[in-house]
Structures are given as structure tokens and as C-alpha cells.
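Dear H.,

Thanks for agreeing to be a second pair of eyes. The structure we're designing against is below in C-alpha cell form, covering all 92 positions.
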């Protein structure tokens, strides 16, 4: 369990570092990640992941046909994905 906890902390640290490095590189001073969309210059992993809490995938089967509804990302979510070097197409 200690090893799993260590891996989780390492991944969280890398997410924070990637976002903060991307912010510096793109000249972004703050991101509205705090409650009530307040800006922060030091985004943390829990706040970054919380920004994606409302992302949902809907798929319906009707008469043997599968219909999927596209995921709509907010501008903040798109910015975070760009900072993390994750292509937005991964959410399609």
C-alpha cells in the first residue's frame, strides 16, 4: 500500500508541475480553479482534477445501434488539457 501511495503522490506532483510549467511557458498568471471561480497562481492536483468533475460520457443503444453524445469541454478544461499536453480529441 505504501508503494501505491507513493506512486499516487508522484503522479499528483507531476500533474501540478506540468500545469505550472505550461502556465509559465504560455504567460498565464492565474487560472480560475478555486471555489467561485477565484483565480490561483499555484494550481494543485485536486483543484485541477476537480475542474473535470462534470465531464460525462453518454451513450444510448436504440434498436441495436449505439448513439454517443459528444463531450463538451469548457474553455478552462481545454486550457488545462493543453497545459497537460493531452489532446482534446481524447475526449471525443
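And this is the sequence the design step returned. I haven't edited it by hand at all.
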Amino acid at each position: 500500500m505504501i508503494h501505491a501511495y507513493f506512486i499516487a503522490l508522484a503522479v499528483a506532483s507531476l500533474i501540478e508541475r506540468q500545469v505550472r510549467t505550461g502556465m509559465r511557458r504560455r504567460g498565464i498568471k492565474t487560472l480560475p480553479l478555486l471555489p467561485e471561480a477565484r483565480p490561483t497562481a499555484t494550481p494543485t492536483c485536486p483543484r485541477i482534477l476537480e475542474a473535470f468533475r462534470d465531464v460525462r460520457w453518454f451513450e444510448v443503444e436504440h434498436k441495436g445501434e449505439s448513439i454517443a453524445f459528444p463531450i463538451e469541454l469548457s474553455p478552462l478544461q481545454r486550457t488545462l488539457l493543453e497545459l497537460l499536453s493531452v489532446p482534446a480529441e481524447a475526449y471525443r
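Two observations from my side: The radius of gyration is 16 Å. Helices lie at 2-26, 45-50, 75-83.

Warmly,
E.
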